[in-house]
User: Which sequence fits this backbone?
């Protein structure tokens, strides 16, 4: 496998966003892992567990917790739905998502999100839950049609939320957030819930359509 990185020079100012570079890093790496799993006829969870080996116990524990809570591998999904999986570490915390998604009238739909979180000592578990749900919904917004920022004649076309898509209450899935018990020194939770949401969602859609999802927002045409 060959990987190249390109840093194009653009005359449009680009500033930081929640979770900084982990948004696109997680999307590329976690969708690539699913591509490899499908190409080699391996279960995406089993493949990740094998890749983690004994070197990444926090990743393994977070994913295992999400799998157990979601019923992945032991529960039959409703017709037209598929599982999607992604795991990512950012700000020294690991978040694993197992999601259920479908395609309705040509548009992706996220139904349920199960999170396994390893942030070491959780001082206030309810705050961790809230941060994960909020970050996941922000991540969901990046997947929905109409969430891109476009330019015309050097001017941004979107001026307000009437012209820009964010996840509304009808888009919000069910959530189940669980924390891996730990007494180790606490880590960050303000941003780690965002990066793995989009790739988990994309991986579910790819399993439904048979086509890889390569961009955000998703384009299923």
Assistant:
């Amino acid at each position: 496998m060959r990987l190249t990185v390109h840093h194009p020079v653009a005359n449009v100012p680009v500033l930081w966003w929640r979770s900084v570079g982990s948004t696109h890093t997680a999307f590329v790496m976690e969708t690539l892992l699913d591509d490899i799993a499908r190409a080699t006829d391996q279960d995406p969870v089993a493949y990740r567990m094998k890749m983690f080996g004994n070197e990444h116990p926090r990743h393994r524990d977070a994913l295992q917790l999400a799998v157990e809570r979601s019923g992945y591998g032991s529960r039959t999904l409703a017709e037209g739905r598929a599982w999607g999986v992604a795991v990512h570490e950012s700000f020294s915390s690991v978040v694993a998502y197992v999601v259920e998604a479908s395609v309705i009238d040509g548009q992706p739909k996220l139904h349920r999100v199960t999170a396994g979180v390893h942030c070491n000592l959780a001082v206030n578990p309810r705050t961790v839950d809230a941060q994960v749900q909020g970050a996941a919904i922000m991540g969901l917004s990046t997947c929905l049609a109409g969430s891109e920022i476009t330019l015309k004649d050097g001017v941004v076309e979107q001026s307000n939320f009437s012209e820009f898509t964010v996840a509304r209450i009808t888009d919000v899935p069910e959530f189940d957030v669980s924390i891996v018990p730990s007494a180790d020194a606490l880590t960050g939770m303000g941003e780690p819930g965002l990066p793995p949401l989009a790739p988990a969602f994309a991986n579910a859609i790819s399993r439904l359509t048979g086509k890889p999802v390569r961009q955000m927002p998703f384009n299923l045409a």
Summary: Residues 22-209 form a domain with the Aldehyde Oxidoreductase; domain 4 fold (CATH 3.30.365.10).
